[in-house]
Design goal:
The structure is a single chain. It contains 15 helices and 26 strands. It is α/β, with parallel strands linked by helices and about 500 residues long. The chain has two domains: about 375 residues, Rossmann fold; about 100 residues, GMP Synthetase, Chain A, domain 3, CATH 3.30.300. It has a nine-stranded mixed beta sheet. Strand 9, helix 7 and strand 10 form a beta-alpha-beta unit. The termini are far apart.
């Protein structure tokens, strides 16, 4: 397998890992534990674990749940599932118990790799019959049958406007293509070492950094959790040449007293920002202080992360735009689902080798998401004469907090479970730290003594703190359209 900037990767993750293992180059370093994995080590461990899963009765194409934070064990679990032809099913550790339980049940996972820190959670939420396994248990293996690039490789759940998470399915081909779009946009090579600070159960952490390094032949430094106070030291220790973050992290670094050494700034080629718009002031302040260029990008779970990127310096970066397409095509669709001319606003759509196969067990949602071979992103925007995309709004009502998608309907349903609630709607509030934060508005029965504290406590118990509103607003009546539907997007302006 050879990295070709002009052609999307062929074969499977197994094929690419076997090729990388022919060298004794380093694949991963873990600065917190002073451990590392060579490509050969990674291949050998992944193969043995995959053979062990076959020996336990796991079937190719079925889900293997991976309940891990960033770290050596999590990396091995992901690659074991991919190497064996299983569907690596990433469980979002930031999701509430309802979402985790749903993902485990909906995916049909019979086996799960579970980090010790998550054992008690899984003990409570695992469906009947699901078996927790680890590397030590997978000793008696069987030969791995062959499989193709079109076979299911990744299942990752993303919030939708209906409240229930949707299971995005990627093949080996589209998963590798996700790493390839990153590699060609950022000119990655075997000499590069990325810095993975975003969780691998997020599409950015998994595809941009892990698959980007696999395809390009470079290496990756991975830490368990982002720390503003340790970021630059860890970047120095592990000698990274690029990093991928979200605007929240950029903001935290700016508000921290630590600074990179001259050696770090000279080594770093660029930093990459994704998930939500990066404020012009924030980008300028970061580059002025740290002397590291920030490249703004855009990606989706449905596209194995990256779809757009600004060029690397000295290429033209248009501030306020997530850039142009690399390895895929972008267009603007009219309401009639035809391609709009330059500078006309419409729905941003993507097509290319990195586009998902389907939403698992949801053919209706899959059909609605595609217009022919164009994937509809749900975002409004325009394309200028140079091909740069400018996002102008969102058709979908997703709240994007710190790079994580939160479905407002999910919060609505929890609020409506309180009998005194007449109307409820969660909405986004712009936030410099998280991009967006969650708030909610409610209308209650006359004479109700229901408090905001009680509702916040209810949400946190049901959804977890991350998804829960920061503030509950009480209104006599929520704004509605002609049909009586609550106009969620007006709330931030009214309150």
């Amino acid at each position: 397998m050879i990295f070709d900037k002009a052609v999307a990767p062929k074969g499977t993750v197994q094929d690419w890992l076997n090729t990388r293992a022919n060298s004794d180059g380093v694949a991963f370093v873990f600065p917190e534990t002073n451990e590392h994995l060579t490509w050969q080590d990674l291949r050998d461990h992944a193969r043995k674990m995959a053979e062990g899963l076959i020996g336990c009765g796991a079937k190719q194409g079925e889900s293997i749940a991976i309940v891990h934070p960033n770290g050596k064990e999590g990396v091995l679990a992901v690659y074991a599932a991919l190497y064996g032809g299983f569907r690596a099913t990433m469980i979002n550790l930031a999701a509430g118990p309802d979402a985790i339980s749903y993902a485990l049940e909906h995916s049909g996972a019979q086996f799960a790799f579970v980090h010790e820190s998550q054992s008690s959670v899984i003990d409570q939420l695992a469906p009947a019959g699901m078996q927790v396994v680890n590397a030590e248990m997978l000793r008696d293996g069987q030969e791995i049958p062959p499989f193709t690039a079109n076979q299911h490789a990744l299942l990752m759940y993303t919030s939708g406007t209906t409240g229930r998470p949707k299971g995005v399915v990627h093949s080996h081909a589209s998963l590798l293509a996700g790493g390839w779009t990153t590699a060609i946009a950022h000119d990655l090579s075997e000499d590069d070492r990325g810095f993975c600070v975003l969780p691998i159960y997020h599409i950015n952490g998994l595809c941009v950094t892990m698959m980007g390094s696999l395809v390009s032949g470079g290496s990756l430094s991975m830490i368990s959790k982002f720390s503003a106070g340790k970021f630059w030291e860890q970047a120095d220790t592990s000698k990274v040449t690029w990093f991928s973050v979200v605007p929240t992290i950029i903001s935290h670094l700016l508000h921290n007293d630590t600074n990179p050494s001259l050696a770090v700034t000279e080594r770093l080629r660029f930093g990459r920002s994704a998930s939500s718009a990066l404020a012009v002031e924030t980008q300028s302040a970061f580059e002025d202080r740290f002397k590291v260029p920030i490249v703004e990008t855009m990606g989706l779970t449905e596209t194995a992360a990256q779809i757009l990127s600004n060029p690397l310096p000295p290429g033209t970066r248009k501030i306020g735009s997530p850039g142009i397409g690399y390895g895929n095509e972008v267009c603007i669709l009219t309401p009639e689902l035809t391609v709009a001319p330059a500078n006309q606003e419409g729905e941003i759509a993507i097509r290319g080798p990195n586009v998902m196969l389907e939403y698992l067990h949801n053919p209706e949602a899959t059909q609605q998401t595609f217009a022919g071979d164009w994937l509809r992103t749900g975002d409004l925007g325009r394309v200028d004469e140079d091909g740069y995309v400018f996002v102008t709004g969102r058709l979908k009502e997703l709240i994007i907090k710190g790079g994580e998608n939160i479905a407002p309907r999910e919060i609505d349903e929890v609020l409506y479970s309180e009998p005194d609630i007449i109307e409820a709607a969660a909405f986004a509030r712009p936030c410099k730290s998280y991009g967006e934060t969650v708030e909610a508005a409610v209308a209650v029965k006359p004479g109700s003594t229901l408090s905001a504290e009680a509702l916040l406590d209810l949400c946190q118990k049901r959804l977890g703190k991350f998804k829960s509103p920061d503030v509950i607003h009480f209104m006599s009546e929520l704004p509605k359209g002609p049909s009586g539907k609550i106009q969620r997007l007006k709330l931030a302006d009214l309150i």
